[in-house]
Write a structure and sequence with these properties.
The chain is α/β, with parallel strands linked by helices and 189 residues long. Helix content is 48%, strand content 24%. The strands form 2 sheets. Strands 4-3-5-6-7-8 form a 6-stranded mixed β-sheet, sandwiched between helices. A two-stranded antiparallel ribbon has the order 1-2.
């Protein structure tokens, strides 16, 4: 199944106080059909993101194609019940497809048993492009996915790189060590 994605557009919104404009980031999200009735899908749609469903993506996948990031959602209890071997095969397939991949492990409480599972998965995929993120609830899951997708989207990533380079240049330029080295070089010449 192919999807045609439109460019990311900030949504302008008037605030109640003073009428100043505030922009909200909106994008297209591709989700596995298994998540169609999931709370995460509902939250994303309420925030006016364009949610599309696909049977051709891994079960539990949430893909932000314009940002180049993909998340696979899993409940730690389900993982403990189904077994790590079967889950590891799914994860391996997922990271072979997606360059920038995240495993979002959800548990109301991360007890020692859940942390041990997380560490075993982390050890198993050490050196791969998989990052593991523990979460507690849907709101936290949506917030982290949107934050990562937003900062890795092309216009935002370019803006962040530019601001970081500019900040680095200002730090170096105003550094007392840099000034001392410049004075030292003047005295040597």
């Amino acid at each position: 199944m192919r999807f045609h994605c439109r460019a990311i557009k900030p949504l302008k919104k008037m605030t109640e106080s003073g009428g100043q404009e505030q922009s909200r980031w909106i994008t297209t999200v591709i989700m596995s059909t298994a998540l169609q009735n999931h709370e995460i899908s509902t939250v994303l749609q309420r925030q006016q993101h364009r949610v599309r469903y696909s049977e051709s993506v891994e079960i539990g996948s949430v893909i932000f194609s314009l940002s180049g990031v993909a998340f696979i959602l899993s409940d730690t209890r389900d993982l403990l019940m189904t077994g790590e071997q079967q889950f590891s095969k799914r994860i391996q397939k997922f990271i072979n497809i997606h360059r920038n991949s995240f495993l979002v492990l959800s548990a109301a409480l991360h007890r020692p048993e859940e942390w041990n599972v997380m560490f075993r998965i982390q050890r198993r995929f050490l050196g791969s492009n998989l990052r593991i993120i523990p979460v507690h609830n849907t709101a936290e899951t949506v917030k982290l996915m949107l934050t990562i997708a937003k900062i890795t989207s092309k216009p935002r990533a370019d803006d962040i790189r530019y601001k970081m380079a500019k900040t680095k240049a200002q730090i170096i330029e105003n550094s007392p060590v840099w000034k001392m080295l410049q004075e030292y070089q003047l005295h040597c010449n």
